[in-house]
Design a protein that fits this description.
The protein is elongated, with a radius of gyration of 17 Å. The two termini are 13 Å apart. Strands 1, 2, 3, 4, 5, 6 and 7 form a seven-stranded mixed β-sheet that branches. By secondary structure, the protein is α+β, with helices and mostly antiparallel strands. 19% of the residues lie in helices and 32% in strands.
Length: 138
């Protein structure tokens, strides 16, 4: 079984959104050598709370995996609208959410309002998703 964060990263990467490069989709912390100017849109995917479920004879048969997805939008978003499309931040957020839902992921919590990263000035969108995985027993 693939790690849930890797599955989510793969789903988003294969969509080939023109507003974020696949190289800017992280399943680890963003390192200091990455662009911290705020001019790059990137997505950080990390594990949120997960829990075992569906116990029988003291053994769980499913994993309810929770994942946090954070999108840090470029501070020059308005100048860099995806290849002459009138794409808004809301459009980008909805595109990611729709893609993940079509891939079997569920929106776990109400969407929070966008916030601004105090260090880079980037608008950020954070949402939580979950999916139930059947655990293999061997």
């Amino acid at each position: 079984m693939k790690l849930p964060i890797v599955e989510v990263a793969d789903i988003i990467s294969t969509a080939k959104f023109d507003w974020v490069d696949a190289d800017n989709i992280y399943t680890t912390n963003v390192t200091p050598d990455e662009d911290d100017s705020g001019k790059t849109t990137f997505i950080r995917i990390q594990e949120a709370s997960s829990e075992l479920a569906n116990y029988a004879n003291d053994f769980s048969s499913t994993l309810n995996a929770g994942v946090e997805v954070q999108i840090f939008f470029s501070t020059i978003w308005s100048k860099k609208l995806a290849k002459n499309k009138n794409l808004t931040i809301l459009d980008a957020k909805v595109a990611v959410l729709s893609l993940l839902q079509k891939s079997g992921w569920h929106i776990q919590r109400p969407l929070t309002p966008e916030s601004v990263d105090p260090d880079t000035g980037q608008k950020t969108a954070t949402f939580y998703i979950n999916k139930i995985f059947r655990m293999e027993s061997k």
